[in-house]
Amino acid sequence: MGTGCAKCKTLYRDVEEVLNERRMEAKLVKIEDIGEILKYGVMSLPAIVIDGKVAMQGGGLSKDEIVKILGK
After folding, report:
1. pLDDT at position 72
2. CA 13 to CA 23: how far, in whole Å?
3. pTM score over 0.85
4. CA distances to 10, 39, 67 from 61, in Å
5. Domain made up of 6-71: CATH architecture
């Protein structure tokens, strides 16, 4: 989730790269609508939602941190 700032774009790209590198199957969707974002209670962007639950919000992540989040 993110409104299009540099951190949001970087996180999306990094998640996409991790999924491809690790051959992980997932449906990657970028949500930019602030109303939709607020429905999840996200107050700090960018954010990652997995199976309807907020897994991370605010700040950037390294690819290693993304792997850990996606592996849960």
Report:
1. 65
2. 15
3. yes
4. 9, 23, 10
5. 3-Layer(aba) Sandwich (3.40)
